[in-house]
């Protein structure tokens, strides 16, 4: 603690000795002046412009109540712990829902239920995998736009405006999904790549999933806890159709997705009708033009597409690198799929953890930035760097825990040295990407979406380039090297931008608009 900070602490203690329960900052200012401090002395010793500013600073930092009793302290601890658990569960449900189809497939395979029911023909299975990945990649941008803009109006206390602004974005996303679906059908029919019935089923499945992801995003804006119910219902329905009724995979997936889509549409319609006749006048407020919304949300749109494309880039590359002699245009090697599924499951456990850490980090930043002074700014920068390093360390420790849990719980008995090394390669790639995701959330919270996009897009290009070269020149299993290299680049680029923002925490807070 330097000399000015020490003097400030001594003054704070002196004020609290005179009156430990200050009424307001005017009283704190009066006490400071009664101690003989003038504006000139205050400027010289504390670097505050006048006694009033120093009084506000003292009032914000004094302890307004006597020391709590041990019982009260214990009650506060448990209340805080329950609140933290609630925040973590909320973060978990938001990020976990979008990977349900892949996770359910993984669970069925590794707990021994998949072999008890009929499997898909190889050509159709490849198309369904491609449709699932494409639905997440193409709808990811619209999901980000809906979530960001909806959360903006919800934060302003304007749920009706949130409903109004989400609807045109959904229409735009639905139109884009339908157009992409039609183009895919036309290309498949024109080239006669696969059987027509397979192509139609895959197109229907793609469209259903794309609409479902966007509607779930709308539902999460309107009902904050709805995603958890959708997750549970989706899982139970799929298990019922697939295991209990013995339906094949495509029938179970389409039936489950259709029912879930219908249920979400009903819930969204109820949410839109709720408050439709509100008389608060908010419906008369003009929303930004759609072109303005697209301009404002373009970084989020491209980040959402890049996010899911990054996660599944190695699978897309591995699928396209198949031997043409097989007669298939896209197929992922089953061994490669199994090994990377383990790595993906580990990543899906990391995502809610880094989202929770980013939430805590940014809340601390915002709370302290409101009370920064030229004297305390340097110490605050050091504190933020320390907490940033601690967050990265906790992420690595959680990675070790989740890796042990996932591999120990889901590892097949025939997983040899080669398969283990492949899983490790994917896990480390996803670890680097999770750290980059942590940085990206911080940059978005600081209203630096463009910088997050600047870190992601070059890393995504590196992921595809290195993965394509390794898959085609070395071996299809080496496509994961692109994930590792690209994720490491994303981690480095995004970390540099976050550390640059930490250098000037007050300016970064001011720029964020909070």
From TrEMBL:
Membrane-crossing residue ranges in chain numbering? 96-113, 119-144, 165-187, 199-221, 228-245, 251-272, 293-313, 343-366, 386-410, 422-444, 456-474, 480-499
Can the keyword Transmembrane be found in this entry's annotation? Answer: yes
| Keyword annotations | Membrane, Transmembrane, Transmembrane helix
Give the source's domain of life in one word.
Bacteria
Q: Please list the coiled coil stretches.
A: none
Protein name, UniProt field = Uncharacterized protein
The organism is Hydrococcus rivularis NIES-593
